[in-house]
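From: lab user (bench 3)
To: helpdesk
Subject: output format question, protein + flavin mononucleotide

Hello, I'm new to running complex predictions and I'm not sure whether the block I got back is the full result or only part of it. Here's what I submitted:
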Amino acid sequence: MSSDKNPGEQRREYARSELRREDLLADPIDQFSKWFHEACESEESDPTAMSLATATADGRPSLRTVLLKHFEPDGFVFYTNHESTKARQIAENPNVALLLPWLTMERQICITGTAVRTSHAESLRYFVTRPIGSRLSAWTSLQSSVVSSRKFLEMKYEEVKRKFAEGEVPLPSTWGGYRVIPETVEFWQGRKNRLHDRFLYTRRDDNSWRIDRLAP
Ligand SMILES: Cc1cc2nc3c(=O)[nH]c(=O)nc-3n(C[C@H](O)[C@H](O)[C@H](O)COP(=O)(O)O)c2cc1C
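Helpdesk reply: Thanks, we reran it on our side. This is the complete output you should expect:
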């Protein structure tokens, strides 16, 4: 990338790799797994960070970063507060999109689908693996609500810490996961002269996947 401070003057050629139809695995989760492992072995700073887009019932969108915590044949899981803005939007409109921008690899993965809550048991299984500070913070923060000050948050944290000083920090009823069940998954690989490779997997009614190359 050129170092010019004017965004329009910055130029980057994408020439690191290519994606050919014959390299693709039949199932997008298997293809995701292959790319995810490659991203973890690359200099990509956080391959688990993904943008999550949600929208209100009347289609007003919002976007934020969340962390991918598992993926398996039925979808992609992240954890959050069930009373946050994103959770309220998912409750009224379960259609969501995820974007994993692996720009060091000159790749992106774009996913659309529906978000469903993970079970209490699954959320609990993950919650107990989180560091103590993160578990306390889940009790402290009414995510997405207005707070009066940093000091208020810190006082609340100390109060929660005292409350759970003896014994385990339980799973808050307002905290848990969502699984994004994919309907489409696009794998994008940057190529020279902006002739990028794009392959879109679309779920068929019988749960097999159709694969189309898209124009860049
Ligand atoms: C790198 C990074 C990782 C994040 N991971 C999560 C996460 O896994 N879960 C979460 O609820 N918020 C996470 N956040 C915070 C969200 O981006 C967001 O601020 C928060 O969830 C509130 O979003 P909402 O008000 O739209 O619901 C992360 C932020 C960053 C920058």
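A quick orientation on your result: The domain at 16-128+172-213 is CATH 2.30.110.10 (Pnp Oxidase; Chain A). Let us know if anything else is unclear.
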